[in-house]
């Protein structure tokens, strides 16, 4: 594999005929965590959904050397992209074990991976027969992460995994992402700059539907002026705000 | 007392027919967000070809009756599958066009059936036992009611087992909740669309054969007349909820029967009032997902 697992070139994304991402180009290295940053509403989530094909898109998206921009979502995912959506989106009326069973892709999920997920999220083992809709937000996030870790992926798209979670659960999520990133690259949308600082090697900043900065995440977050200008926040203050 | 028992038995029989039609409508809407106006055509064709099969064997024999049920279900499933593959799938995500095509198919199929079988109803015969009655608490209940209720209960059980115990059932349940997320797990949800249409069509075709025995005739307009009430049942039960469809089928049919008997034949009017009431108080239906 080359240095990049994902190449996004002139991606434009529309929702219900309204263009929400104008022209986004960036690459994701084949190792580590790359953070997608930007103020609220700039198109970070839409960019991830555009890569997946959940929203209508134009432009080129290449995964491990293969063009995937003409593929429907389920085939993009089958090529090896795992998606953890904003707000978890677990199936509330399915049990935890049904949520996980549904996520297992044929030939991708193995016993070793199931055991790894069980070790990582022991709480889910105990709650196997519980309806996912009755879990706490943190437990639902565990289900959402477990769904992608069950499969052998080339890339994970993770959208605001710490949003609305208690500090203790945020630590668990950080640990899970750190472990996962040892074997699979992650493209991470995250508003919590402390989480970005601890996890991300690279950063892509989006503003007004375009990429306005790419580079090292630590360099960006250590430059107060740049952080203030691009994200509208002091790096030490924690969260990107509108 | 005997009148109440008779109204209950007749209402439950009618409710069973409503359920056989509404179960498919509800599953199809829940998963695909398509209001399938062609569902009545599946029912009518199932009834017409089912009875034709029964006549070939001997309509008054049990083998003939069983054959008509099997043929009705198979015809319903086959036509529904073709409808999904040829007409609905090319219009994926274009809900208004999908609804319009089902309306067109519904109108065209009635005209086609009238051209083939004529506009007059054909009075049907079945095994003698179905036309006889059984005494319950002083009421003489027609035996066909027991068969219809039993078959609908078996269909409900079969669908529940399928939804709970199979991977496709799991995909359908998940798809009713969040179709986009199912595709984001790498699952081609369109395959389950075809399956849901086939299951709904089979239930409707089966319902068509049983409806012909309930009313005593089969005609090209049979499906259309039942479809209206099935839609009301589906909305009252909650679009996408199988349990809601089952509960609402029984409630609507019983209300209709009792209003017809005790309120001067106002059954149809009363259930439209009930529909309006449910929509005002609980727009998502009795067991539907809140918007």
Automatic annotation (TrEMBL), chain A:
<dbReference type="InterPro" id="IPR052156">
    <property type="entry name" value="BCAA_Transport_ATP-bd_LivF"/>
</dbReference>
<dbReference type="InterPro" id="IPR027417">
    <property type="entry name" value="P-loop_NTPase"/>
</dbReference>
<keyword id="KW-0547">Nucleotide-binding</keyword>
<dbReference type="Pfam" id="PF00005">
    <property type="entry name" value="ABC_tran"/>
</dbReference>
<keyword id="KW-0813">Transport</keyword>
<dbReference type="InterPro" id="IPR017871">
    <property type="entry name" value="ABC_transporter-like_CS"/>
</dbReference>
<dbReference type="InterPro" id="IPR003439">
    <property type="entry name" value="ABC_transporter-like_ATP-bd"/>
</dbReference>
<feature type="domain" description="ABC transporter">
    <location>
        <begin position="6"/>
        <end position="233"/>
    </location>
</feature>
<keyword id="KW-0067">ATP-binding</keyword>
<dbReference type="InterPro" id="IPR003593">
    <property type="entry name" value="AAA+_ATPase"/>
</dbReference>
<keyword id="KW-0029">Amino-acid transport</keyword>
<protein>
    <submittedName>
        <fullName>ABC transporter ATP-binding protein</fullName>
    </submittedName>
</protein>
<dbReference type="GO" id="GO:0005524">
    <property type="term" value="F:ATP binding"/>
</dbReference>
<comment type="similarity">
    <text>Belongs to the ABC transporter superfamily.</text>
</comment>
From TrEMBL, chain B:
<comment type="similarity">
    <text>Belongs to the binding-protein-dependent transport system permease family. LivHM subfamily.</text>
</comment>
<feature type="transmembrane region" description="Helical">
    <location>
        <begin position="99"/>
        <end position="117"/>
    </location>
</feature>
<keyword id="KW-1003">Cell membrane</keyword>
<feature type="transmembrane region" description="Helical">
    <location>
        <begin position="146"/>
        <end position="163"/>
    </location>
</feature>
<feature type="transmembrane region" description="Helical">
    <location>
        <begin position="227"/>
        <end position="254"/>
    </location>
</feature>
<protein>
    <submittedName>
        <fullName>Branched-chain amino acid ABC transporter permease</fullName>
    </submittedName>
</protein>
<feature type="transmembrane region" description="Helical">
    <location>
        <begin position="65"/>
        <end position="87"/>
    </location>
</feature>
<feature type="transmembrane region" description="Helical">
    <location>
        <begin position="193"/>
        <end position="215"/>
    </location>
</feature>
<dbReference type="InterPro" id="IPR001851">
    <property type="entry name" value="ABC_transp_permease"/>
</dbReference>
<dbReference type="InterPro" id="IPR052157">
    <property type="entry name" value="BCAA_transport_permease"/>
</dbReference>
<keyword id="KW-0029">Amino-acid transport</keyword>
<keyword id="KW-0812">Transmembrane</keyword>
<keyword id="KW-1133">Transmembrane helix</keyword>
<dbReference type="Pfam" id="PF02653">
    <property type="entry name" value="BPD_transp_2"/>
</dbReference>
<feature type="transmembrane region" description="Helical">
    <location>
        <begin position="6"/>
        <end position="27"/>
    </location>
</feature>
<keyword id="KW-0472">Membrane</keyword>
<feature type="transmembrane region" description="Helical">
    <location>
        <begin position="34"/>
        <end position="53"/>
    </location>
</feature>
<feature type="transmembrane region" description="Helical">
    <location>
        <begin position="261"/>
        <end position="281"/>
    </location>
</feature>
<keyword id="KW-0813">Transport</keyword>
